[in-house]
Design brief:
Beta-Lactamase; 5 helices; 174 residues; 40% helix; alpha+beta
């Protein structure tokens, strides 16, 4: 049985790989974030085998340049049984990275919250370069100097200045 991948054990190489225009990554997790399903495109992009992924925490593919405050917002939203759209940079097993436009929803079966479903697609590369990367760099800087709460305050300040909610901001860039 393969060993469960350990978050933080992969060193980013700076090499970017991209989803195809018609590719969709699909995964499911339980309510604790452990992977229960991974489609072939997710397996290919992550570089892990299906056996390595199943049962592993989804954050095994979290890139260190992904702001924690964005994930806190994502988790808060889906735990409230609401959907969320977000830009995410993921880390492959070989250290390469790839950007996705993610749509995450709670999975409700017979009225019971059983997990989460995430469908990811290729984002617009220009939006990533001109909007998302600069925003995430600012959030990371705030987190490094003042913790996740500092990143959250900055994100809320930026959204307030734009006069939009997080959802409206993301929807306007998709």
């Amino acid at each position: 049985m393969p060993e469960t991948p350990k978050k933080g054990s992969v060193v980013p190489t700076g090499k970017e790989i991209s989803l195809g225009d018609d590719d969709f990554i699909v995964s499911k997790t339980d309510t604790k974030g452990k992977i229960t399903y991974a489609n072939r495109i997710f397996i290919r992009m992550s570089g892990y085998s299906e056996r390595e992924l199943l049962g592993s925490p989804h954050n095994v593919i979290r890139h260190p340049s992904m702001p924690k405050c964005v994930f806190r917002l994502l988790w808060k939203t889906i735990m409230d049984r609401r959907e969320i759209f977000a830009y995410v940079v993921n880390l492959s097993k070989d250290g390469s990275h790839y950007w996705v436009a993610a749509h995450v929803t709670p999975e409700i079966t017979a009225g019971k919250h059983v997990g989460y479903i995430s469908v990811r697609r290729k984002p617009n590369p220009e939006t990533v370069r001109s909007v998302v990367e600069p925003l995430y760099a600012k959030l990371l800087q705030a987190e490094r100097s003042g913790g996740m709460e500092s990143g959250e305050r900055l994100l809320n300040q930026i959204l307030s200045e734009k006069g939009v909610s997080y959802d409206a901001f993301i929807q306007s860039t998709l």
